[in-house]
Amino acid sequence: MQKHQQAIRERKKREKDQRIQSILAAAKQVFFSKGYLKTTMDEIALEAQISKPTIYQYFKTKDELYSSLMLPFLEEFGRQFERIEKKLTDRKYTSGNDLVKDLFNIFIRSYETAPDSLRVAHTFFQHQDLINELNPDTRAAISDRGKYDFELARRVLQAAITQGLLRDIDSFALSDILWGLFVGITQVMDMKATKHDQERKYLKSTLSLAEKLIIDAIVLK
């Protein structure tokens, strides 16, 4: 009897997790295609093929749903930079080439594993009016996490410069250049691609060339 009840609980949890993931997947599509301001919970429900009251069982507001998309993405981004920072602290990098490759791999991995989340994040940080529309708690949580990731990236670059792996360049400007480079390339690929496979193929080859150009420009050893 106890095993039967446990099996039922596990099944219900799986169903709940699947429902949440389907809602998040639908929200990504609608937020990216229509933008946060124009998106409604009705449209997300339609995309997810469920009722709007069902969405409200899991997410009380559109802000909460948006935050549930943004924060895990930004947190994972930060974890990847923390991993690189630790390697720098432990003096594991003997070549600036390897460091730059690791940085580019963060961007490539984020695009391959969560392309819609990446696009939604780009949109968020590019539009001040969107930021102002969020409730204060949601806005603060997302903005603070985004600022932390940017500051972490700058710390990583400054540490690499201090260790003589990279040229003595303004780490703030360099961080913005690398971020802008990746955002710009992914947006251009989105505009040009007609098929998902083509999009991925051209993105990788373009980023590979960008990586080589950056290495040639800033790596000391």
Word description of this protein:
The protein is mostly helical and 221 residues long. It has 2 domains: 1-59, Arc Repressor Mutant, subunit A (Orthogonal Bundle), CATH 1.10.10.60; 62-218, Tetracycline Repressor, domain 2, CATH 1.10.357. Helices cover 83% and strands 0% of the residues. The protein has 10 helices and no strands. Helix 1 packs across helix 4. It is globular and about 60 Å long. It starts with a helix and ends with a helix.
Percent range of helical residues: over 70%
Low-pLDDT stretches are: none
How do the helices and strands follow one another from N- to C-terminus? HHHHHHHHHH
| CATH fold type of the largest domain | Tetracycline Repressor, domain 2
Structural class: mainly alpha
Number of strands: 0
- Envelope shape: globular
CATH architect. name of the largest domain: Orthogonal Bundle
Overall pLDDT metric: 83
Number of helices: 10
> The biggest beta sheet, please?
none
CATH H-level superfamily of the largest domain: Tetracycline Repressor, domain 2
Q: Give the termini separation.
A: 66 Å
- Regarding CATH, which class of the largest domain? Mainly Alpha
